[in-house]
Amino acid sequence: MSAMDLAMRLGKEFGELISAPTEFRGEVTLWVADGERIAEVCAFAKGELKFDYLVDVTSIDNYGEDPRFVVVYHLQGLTHLRHLRLKVALGEEKGELPTVSGVWRTADWHEREIYDMMGIRFRGHPDLRRILMWDGYPYFPLRKDFPLAGKQTDLPEVAFTEPSPMMGGPFVTVAGGVDTIAREPRVRIPESDALEANARLERRRDLGRADEQHGNVRKG
Amino acid sequence: MSAPTTTEIEFKDSAGRVASAAMVDRAPRIEADEQEVSGEKMVLNMGPSHPATHGVLRIILELDGEIITKATPDVGYLHRGDEKIAENMTYTQFIPYTDRLDYLAPLANNVAYALAVEKLMGIDKALPPRCQYIRVICCELARISAHLLGLGAFAMDVGALTVFLHTFTEREKIYNLCESLTGARFTTSYTRIGGLMRDLPPGWVEQCRKFLDEVVVNFDESEKLLTRNRIFVDRTRDIGVITREQAIDFGLSGPNLRGSGVNHDVRKAEPYLVYDQLDFEVPIGSVGDCYDRYLVRMEEMRQSVRILRQCLDKLPGGPVNIPDGKTVLPEKKKVLTSMEELIHQFILVTQGVDAPPGEIYFGAENPKGELGFYINSKGGGTPHRLKIRAPSFVNLSILSALLPGHMMSDTVSILGSLDFVMGECDR
Questions:
Q1: Whole-angstrom Cα distance, residue B98 to residue B48?
Q2: Is B393's Cβ below 8 Å from some Cβ in A?
Q3: Contact B374 A56 (CB under 8 A)
Q4: Alpha-carbon distance A66 to A91, whole Å?
Q5: Least crowded by CB within 10 Å, which of B45, B61, B150, B270?
Q6: What domains can be seen in chain A, in order of their start residue?
Q7: Residue A168: which pLDDT band, with cuts at 50, 70 and 90?
């Protein structure tokens, strides 16, 4: 059974929900009209059509178009070796899809990566945290409106560790100092330490505010 | 008279001995001690800077004594935003970035990326035969190099330092071959869209044959050091067992998938280049433990040698690039003397190849597993979205399910047997 036949069977099962399959360079692509039912479609594809191997899940940002995001699922069956690509369009305001990590466990990390890079949330995901960027990072770097050069953000190490036992002592380097000279314990003067500590608190508050704006959940 | 003495030495295990001794004189104190120590769990932070994590992987381990009860891998310390970078440059400009994915097999990454772009452009079947054979040679040399390092480091982690020295001697020869082939030992950037940077240098085929004869001896030596080595076997057999169903569910690929008994190799399943004309076998494991993954890699290297010998024998003549000025850079001599070639050169360098709108996924069997590129193009010389399906990233996602229940020291064996590269995992 060719990939096209399998796509047709999926179309027959779900009717209007599945678009007509298109083929490019021998790869079959289907659009799923309602993102809310993607898990159901995937479960059927895995169970009935033997697409037991999820190769990849990824996302595209079509900035300036509506709906803005597309989530792409690459399915493969290890017995029949056919590939199938499922695509779901997703508006920016909604920004949420049901997870398919219940169908294939490998989707867990792929979905975390999409959340991390593109800011799309997955409902029902067991552990939806950032994966490549650090917890509390305020932006979604693969969005098209994020500049290639990046944006200034706070370094994470101060915000996420408990103060070490000798912190502030005369032999301990201050984390998060402006440069190596400022971090060097022997040149520090107590007044500037206090200033720096205040600046750090300020940065931490900024981060908290950014989190609230973006709806991030910070660990701990 | 002898009866009491025999009962005293009849205790079979040490625990029974302690218990009976406790019953005699100090039973209450031992009970109190046990109550104090039980129920305490410790969190151990392994990495990101730890020799056994082969780069910058961090695992947060929750331990009950020496038994792992929970493992949370933390990746991303080497994240460089390759996918973002790719969206902002031409297809050809991205080739050097692929060197830095799995930096132990840059040649194989180059080939996989070039094939993905060529598939998008619809020219992957039109590559000259010589180019295809040389690309297969690149892939298999990279596989041997990556597996040699993987095995050497794995063996070193579980205590067999000698193997590491043996395998690194051979890798040095591969680096020499890379150097004469591409001009660089490490960051090869050898392929181009529609061809190769250059043809094989004179005498390279003989050098490669000589290397193959030497490396086979080295495999035997390494195998003698490991396959029946009591310490190595004890530390790897029945450790880190991944069942067939688990391996598929977690999307593992490469030797890790085949170690669990799944007969899936992209080179056989969907042959690209000239793999369908070459004779080789795909080894698979039976149990899915660390030892099986070791055996699979060992055999894969021997099969790679077999493939390489066939390629060197069959290597056809002819050009290595597609004869199309709109895809491959023209000869420098012609650029300086002919108008048309000058224009081609100018357009290729400033705008890149002209890819059609569309989307493709291409997966290649790399040493670590299936390295896939998903390219979404809106036409022109730059991808709209380029997603790298990194095998190490996917392979590592099983850690949180695999590690619990093992001893702390087994982590080292398991990590070594999974053979990942963080450059690729974090991209």
A1: 23
A2: yes
A3: yes
A4: 7
A5: B45
A6: 3-123 (3.30.460.80), 156-214 (no CATH)
A7: low
As a whole number, mean pLDDT of residues A146-173 equals 65
Does residue B258 sit at the A interface (CB-CB below 8 Å)?
A: no
The pair of structure tokens assigned to A7 is 């796509």
CB B236 within 8 A of CB B158: yes
Length reported for chain A: 220
Would you tell me how many other CB atoms lie within 10 Å of the CB of residue B13? 8
| CA B123/CA B308 separation, integer angstroms | 25
Q: Which residues of chain A are within 8 Å of residue B250 when distances are taken between CB atoms?
A: 105-106
Could you say which of B81, B250, B359 has the minimum Cβ distance to residue A141?
A: B81
The CA distance from B357 to B368, in Å, is 31
Domain range for B388: 51-58+69-426
Mark residue B240 as left, alpha or beta (left: phi above 0; alpha: psi -120 to 50; beta: remaining): left
Residue B60, beta-bridge partner list: B45, B72
| Structure tokens, B326 | 């709109």
Q: In the structure encoding, which two tokens stand for residue A6, read together?
A: 């399998």
Predicted pLDDT at A187: 61
Which residues sit opposite B361 in a β-bridge?
B374
Q: Kindly indicate whether the ipTM for this predicted assembly is greater than 0.85, answering yes or no.
A: no
Is residue B18 scored above 70 in pLDDT? no
User: B116 with B194: CB under 8 angstroms?
Assistant: no
Q: Residue B323: what are its φ and ψ, rounded to 5°? A: -80, 65
CA distance B222 to B345: 49
Residues 6+ apart with CB under 8 A from B232: B155, B158, B159, B160, B226
Could you tell me where the DSSP H helices lie in B183-238? 204-226, 230-236
Q: Are residues A142 and B83, on separate chains, in Cβ contact within 8 Å?
A: yes
% of chain B beyond a pLDDT of 70? 91
d(CA B244, CA B225): 29
Residue type, position B198, single letter? R
**What residues in B contact A56, CB-CB < 8 Å?**
361, 372, 374, 387, 389
- Torsion sign (Cα): B251, B254, B257, B263: positive
Q: CB B385 to CB A148 under 8 A?
A: no
Does residue B35 belong to any structural domain of this protein? no
Neighbours of B213 (CB within 10 A): 10
**Cβ of A213: how many Cβ atoms within 10 Å?**
9
Give the number of A-B residue pairs with CB atoms closer than 8 Å. 88
- The CA radius of gyration of chain B, in Å to the nearest whole number, is 26
The CATH code of the domain that includes B202 is 1.10.645.10
Burial status of residue B6 (CB atoms within 10 A of its CB: 0-12, 13-18, 19 or more): exposed
Residue at B64 is within a domain: no
What the block records as the tokens of B193 is 């869209």
- Report the distance separating Cα A28 and Cα A6, nearest Å: 10
**pLDDT at position B19:** 42
Give dist(CA B76, CA B285) in Å, integer.
31
| B85, B249, B387: residue with CB nearest A106 | B249
Strands B191-192 and B67-74, bridge-based pairing = unpaired
d(CA B69, CA B63): 6
Q: How many distinct structural domains can be found in chain B?
A: 1
Q: pLDDT tens across A89-137, in order?
A: 988 888 889 999 989 999 999 999 999 999 899 989 888 888 888 877 8
CB-based contacts of B160, cutoff 8 Å, min separation 6: B225, B226, B229, B231, B232
